[in-house]
Amino acid sequence: MRLVFAGTPAVALPSLTTLAERFELAAVITREDAPLGRRRVLTPSPVAEAAAELDLPVIKANRLGEDVTEQVADLHADLGVIVAYGGLVREPLLSTPRLGWVNLHFSLLPRWRGAAPVQRAVMAGDTETGVAVFQLVGALDAGDVFAQLRRPIPADATAGELLDSLAEDGAALLADTVSALADGTAVAVPQSGDPVLAPKLTIDDARLDLTLPVDEVYARLRGVTPEPGAWVLLDGERFKVHAARPTGGLSLPPGVVADVDGRIEVGTGTTPLELLTVQPAGKRAMAAADWWRGAGGSAVLS
Q1: Does pLDDT of 34 surpass 90?
Q2: 272-285: buried (b, 16+ CB within 10 Å) or exposed (e) per residue?
Q3: Distance between alpha carbon 28 and the CA centroid of its chain, in Å?
Q4: Which residue among 52, 102, 220, 294 is least enclosed by CB atoms within 10 Å?
Q5: Residue 16's Cα: distance from chain center in Å?
Q6: Digit-coded pLDDT (tens) for 261-290
Q7: Of the candidates 87, 80, 91, 10, which has an alpha carbon nearest to the alpha carbon of residue 51?
């Protein structure tokens, strides 16, 4: 089975390395080098770096247009595989490999179709998620499903932690599906149920509304961690909350911060959150207790 692989972030690496061990990879498609860090240094994607280490041909493109389609056609691949590439595969590229394309998606389709399925699942308070391998079609994440795995969402897991775990589980499922396609035993079934969309997160999605119940605030915080990162306002400036946890203690007014038996707590619509790691505007991330000492024992977050 001769494959073309498309992916960009680190979450695609388990799939790339697993497929490289079991199949022939004709080329890897990834997005172009992007400026990173304060100095905005052009940096290859994690998939580009891994492909180079595996001595695989790399096609860098931010749009899968005519040029990429021609390059893929020249490879005479049997199957295209896509994992978090960050762009849409449209015709004629969709039909260029002999068997089309399959996609590893980090949700139980049709729930959470779109760019941020794990983040949206955590934010919504879902207790279960999973991975699905499906046939890519023109409509968003709507193709028939070859295989899926179900996994519980741990009560304190961040989206980043959950995604790392699903990436490992999904890599094995994806490789097994490719094997089934190679020997002609793969069977895909239509998706069942009402679709729920998972659009890409914005910075506004990451703002915590401290007037809501603590469970909802905590779910949003975990869902936007590590990216784009939870925040509130302090004196009109963005105040990041990197880590916190529910306390179950006595209530505080929403947004009011207090030292409660050595814990730095902030009020919500129900019981407080204990702040663990925070980052005031223009400063480094720090323990909440260190910030509180510098704040003079008085602060209201909104």
Answers
A1: no
A2: bbbbeebbbeeeee
A3: 20
A4: 294
A5: 17
A6: 889 999 999 999 999 999 999 899 999 999
A7: 10
E strands present in the chain? 2-7, 24-30, 34-36, 41-43, 58-60, 79-83, 101-105, 111-113, 128-135, 145-152, 196-197, 231-234, 237-246, 257-260, 263-266, 273-279, 286-287
pLDDT computed for residue 165 by the predictor: 96
| Helices (H), ranges, the chain | 13-22, 46-53, 66-75, 117-123, 159-183, 214-223, 288-295
Residue found under tokens 């849409």:
88
pTM here? 0.93
160: which DSSP letter? H
Confidence label for 107 from pLDDT (cuts 50, 70 and 90): very high
Burial class (CB in 10 A: 0-12, 13-18, 19+), 99: middle
**Residue 250 pLDDT level (bands cut at 50, 70, 90):** confident
Q: Is 227 helix (H, G, I), strand (E, B) or coil?
A: coil
Amino acid in the structure at residue 176: D
C-alpha angle with apex 121: 176 to 127, nearest 5 degrees?
A: 85
| 143 φ/ψ angles, rounded to the nearest 5 degrees | -75, 165
78 HSE (CA, 13 A, CB side):
12
Q: Determine if the peptide bond prior to 152 is cis (ω within 30°).
A: no
Q: How far apart are CA 122 and CA 119, in angstroms?
A: 5
Asked if the model's pLDDT at residue 38 lies above 90, the reply is no
Contact 221, 208 (CB under 8 A): yes
Distance CA 290, CA 73 (A): 58
Q: How far apart are CA 144 and CA 93, in angstroms?
A: 19
**Residue type for position 91:** E
